[in-house]
Specification:
Layout lengths: L1 H24 L1 H5 L18 E5 L4 E4 L2 H10 L5 E7 L6 E3 L4 E4 L12 E4 L2 H11 L2 E3 L1 H31 L1
Antiparallel strand pairs: 1-2, 1-3, 3-4, 5-6, 5-7
Length: 170
Amino acid sequence: MKRCGLILVAIAFFFFTGTFFSAQAQEDIQKHASCKYCGMDRAKFAQSRMLIEYEDGTSVGTCSIHCVAVDLSLNIDKTPKTIGVGDYNTKALIDAEKAVWVIGGSKPGVMTKRAKWAFAEKGAAEAFVKENQGKVATFDEAMKATYEDMNEDTKMIRERRKMRQMKKAD
């Protein structure tokens, strides 16, 4: 009987702490529900969302690395303290600079023609590449690719928005 009670307490503890950490991990989505630049729902795009925390105490939540590049360009005089990104598989916020990135592949990206996905572990990134193609990269390489793609991606986004407006008008 004592053993059963102990097991129940242990289960309750793991359930409570799991719920607590899950809620804490989603805190950035509660604080920044939609992307500052494009308005996309960050919960819906949790696997690509990003969070910049600046040294001055301000933060910005975006839907993707594309919108992070926009923010970093507009805030050239602010120094990022941390940059987080959603892990593609778990959607947990991880350190973008320590993440293993995959550039390209057959899986459509968020706000970009050439996808950029982040993974907490190299094995997960390699498994993704094996299934979807692409190239394993660092954060710096992913940011460089994002800036290289900015013109074409911006034109693509404008065209998609124009098409949506035309459909709404019908």
